[in-house]
Amino acid sequence: GPRPAAVGPQDRRREPGQVRRDIQRERGAAAGLGPVPTTTIGSFPQTPEIRRARAEHRAGRLSEEGYRDRLREEIARVIRLQEELGLDVLVHGEAERNDMVQYFAEHFEGFSATEHGWVQSYGSRCTRPSILWGDVSRKGEGVRGEAFTVPWITWAQSLTERPVKGMLTGPVTILAWSFVREDQPLAVTADQVALALRDEVRDLEDAGIGIVQVDEPALRELLPLRREDHAAYLEWAVQAFRLATSGVRAETQIHTHLCYSEFGEVLAAIDALDADVTSVEAARSRMELLAPLAESGFDRGIGPGVWDIHSPRVPAEEEIRDLLQAAARVVPADRLWANPDCGLKTRGYPETEAALRHLVAAAAAVRREAAARPEEAVPVA
After folding, report:
1. Would you call 310 a catalytic residue per the annotation?
2. What is the per-residue pLDDT for 374?
3. Is 274 helix (H, G, I), strand (E, B) or coil?
4. β-strands 108-112, 130-138 pairing
5. What pTM was estimated for this model as a whole?
6. Which 3 state secondary structure label does DSSP give 77?
7. Which residue in 29, 80, 356, 378 is a FRET match for 162, CA 20 to 30 A apart?
């Protein structure tokens, strides 16, 4: 389509990070956010009831309105739970999403989803990669198509005074977990996906959502095997992310989330994404990523995952506190976030609630320590 051809360098740039940080800190303070805010990565457990409602809707036994009512009830329950747990930045829980890529493919032109195209994801978990065969844009009326995440996120935000994050999957991950057309460079396809996401990010901002998270869990996964191909890949991957996220005002806080712990080769790319807050898998690697990241000059918000959600184990409060304290020795408290290392979709509610209670208590303890020792707010070299 014509839109990628019209993209210029200014479409991939935001105001300087320090300018954004000052404005966002004021906005956060007005919303009650202080140092070491707590949040989750996006999804909450997908219950058997939600999966059943989706199957009934797909089979025609549950009307569109009936299905939407069930989803709205589930989102309201998840918001109430997060308020009761004491989390600072809330999520809507993604009850309406079958999968973090397939859901977007179903709302984009140029994609086909399959009925039975299951492939193994990890362990016994499977997913249905979509087929990206044509030019990508949002479905619906008008040149830009229609927003599809906005109704769910704004419904969640209407139920609480606390900030709710908009939640999107990034262009690199959408390509990584789909079967992608090969008749044009991946960089061109990534930009098309990025422009569709850019429209959604701006619509979320226009709807009053002040924090938008664009997840790129597959950024490291797509890294080519040949070292000489790394730079070219990272260049288009970073540029696509920036195209998706640079259309908003300075006060809108862009978050991203990255999976896997082998980050050494992509540290410069993580910095180049220029997200205001980056959450990363860090529990299994005991925060080892943070020192090299700080040494590389990274100076924006960071949320090192403090428990491994791929296991049903509930980490104790002391364990989470130890990890956050280790992080706080490298990252100042006003740039440190407390969160799990990935989404909670595959977990059960009892373990999720217990672990989140420990997370909130541990973050409060680290916050108190930071307030008692303000002179140590400067990270050690």
Report:
1. yes
2. 65
3. coil
4. antiparallel
5. 0.95
6. helix
7. 378
